[in-house]
Amino acid sequence: NLVGDQGGETSAPRSLKREALPAELSIILPSFNEAENIPILIGLLDKALAGTAWEAIVVDDNSPDGTTEIARKLALSDPRVRVIRRIGRRGLSGACIEGILASSAPYVAVMDADLQHDETLLPKMLAEIRTGDIDLMVASRKVEGGTVGEGLSKVRAWGSNIANGLAQKLLNVTLSDPMSGFFMVRREKAEELAPKLSPQGFKILLDLVSSAAGTLKIKELPFTFRERQHGESKLDTLVTLDYFGLLLAKYFGDIVSVRFLMFGLVGASGLVVHLAALRVFLLSDMSFNMSQTAASFVAMTSNFFLNNQLTYRDRRLRGLGALIGLLTFYAVCSVGVLANVGVANLIYADPAYWWFAGAAGAIMGAVWNYAASSALTWRK
Ligand code: GDD
Ligand code: MN
């Protein structure tokens, strides 16, 4: 009896090896440059999960260190190892989502592939979730008994506290460690929520919990974040910015997307760049019209590069593609100016409400720039 057997501690029929059973638990291992860590981790999982029908799904974003090849080699001798190789895409959250969607097991765990997460917690998490009373088990570094141990530097620990505090205040998330990348969830639930999740950044758990809007039964479990032995962390300033972007977007009830928000912030920075450049050109004795035009190009160029780094990180243009992108971005923004002035002109009736017409024009221009540049410059 295949189904009855996989949950319990009893061993599989002799004729059917444990590995041949359908997995009850899929462990999603997002990886970028973890070639040294993956084989060790699979060995540790094998030990920690003896008696459980599990599989590991390595979701690798085409790591230059050959993580995919290493994982595939393991898969040839161990059918519990599966590999998804993504090309042209980056993002921890997106990798986790794809891994979850590739699973058919009733339960999925998400875990770092770099040995910083304690795999011996998996059986405890599974036992809790199997009872049917819990939808999501979170391994937390902040709950009584858990610790960031040696895993986080002072600065990181401090930043992580601020990020948690904000998430708890802004989103009413009661998790003690909403940034944790170690959790187990009923696949059905995750699958339901998947269309709402953002693929960028590191915030999959927070995204999952806030998208569920209180419908998940959650339990936390303390754990100690281990120090990284091989390779390095990919959590950088951009990942942090992206996290704050998600907080703001969720706070405003998903009316505006994270992308549009980021685009707006970049646009606002463009205004500062524009004014600074205008000042410099004017000082160099250029006519006002020439200076204003030149300053516009400086601001558009700066906006293009910032959007390419931040807003469209996942569709980043490089080399010749970036040059063509820059030219289409100039074209899009020029039309944006026309849309801006046109709308302002249409609305402008009473000099007392000059600001209303001005703002309407600016918003129209921003919406146009956003829609057109996402369709033309950073098209999928
Ligand atoms: N596929 C894929 N694509 N995997 C990625 C990417 C990516 O773009 N970026 C990171 N990963 C993988 C890493 O290879 C590792 O297995 C895991 O995701 C965690 O990444 P690290 O770069 O090691 O993150 P960290 O240790 O600095 O951050 C940890 O703490 C954060 C909160 O402080 C992680 O547990 C995060 O999940 C957590 O949010
Ligand atoms: Mn790590």
UniProtKB/TrEMBL annotation:
Which Pfam families does the UniProt record give?
Glycos_transf_2, GtrA_DPMS_TM
A biological-process GO annotation: polysaccharide biosynthetic process
The answer to whether the entry has keyword Ribonucleoprotein is no
The UniProt record lists the GtrA/DPMS transmembrane domain at 263-378
User: EC number(s) on record?
Assistant: 2.4.1.83
Enzyme's top EC category: transferase
Its annotated compartments are: Membrane
> What's its membrane topology?
Multi-pass membrane protein
Kindly give the Gene3D superfamilies that the UniProt entry links to this protein. Answer: Spore Coat Polysaccharide Biosynthesis Protein SpsA, Chain A
Disordered, as annotated region: 1-15
Q: Where are the transmembrane segments?
A: 260-282, 319-347, 353-371
GO terms assigned for molecular function: dolichyl-phosphate beta-D-mannosyltransferase activity
Domain Glycosyltransferase 2-like as annotated: residue spans: 26-193
Q: Which UniProt keywords apply?
A: Glycosyltransferase, Membrane, Transferase, Transmembrane, Transmembrane helix
Q: Name one GO cellular component term.
A: membrane
Task: Report the family membership.
Answer: Belongs to the glycosyltransferase 2 family.
PANTHER family, A to Z: DOLICHOL-PHOSPHATE MANNOSYLTRANSFERASE SUBUNIT 1
Listed name of the protein: Glycosyltransferase involved in cell wall biogenesis
Which species does the entry assign this protein to? Answer: Roseibium alexandrii (strain DSM 17067 / NCIMB 14079 / DFL-11) (Labrenzia alexandrii)
